[in-house]
Design a protein that fits this description.
The chain is of the alpha+beta class. Helices cover 39% and strands 21% of the residues. Belongs to the SCO1/2 family.
Length: 204
Amino acid sequence: MKTYKYLIFALVVSLTACKNSSDEKSSDNNQEVTAESQELPDLSIYHLPSEWTTQNNEDITLENLKGDVLAVVMIYTSCKAACPRLVADMRNIQKKVSDEKNKNVKYVFVSIDPETDTPQRLKSFAKENEMDSDQWVFLRGTEEDTREFAAILAVSYKQISPVDFSHSNIISVFDQQGVLKYQKEGLGEDDSETIQKIEELSNS
């Protein structure tokens, strides 16, 4: 699955780069590519130009998260089945990671239902789940950008009713440069490897 996922990501980044290159050539005011951006690994998610809105109604790109280890899941807040378990898994992981290592970690929830999950709804959800510190990040984007990001994570989802989705349950861990380093699929699984990977990356 990892090889397939990386191929998808490489294709997405390649297409994005081609589009950006075309846009730059047609623009009178080309933007300089910073040295910092040039240093990003090829498979970094921080190459993606997609824009997201946080639970605090702030517009960001994924690159705004650079510098922290990221534990990422995709959910929707009205979910009554798998998502509460996935949220609980993330909370348990956060509690088990040492305080010192947690200083360099963000726990990110990306909505697969951006129409319903407004910033206000995400903010309420964060408070309801006692995830309202800066360490917890909730994001919503366009349908297109959400699908693109899901493809990179090998997360599949499908709307099966006006209010319900079927979806993969995957926790993904990224290093400080936005490169995917580890994934765990399932609910209520042994989280020791996930915690070990987060703490290991937090040291680097």
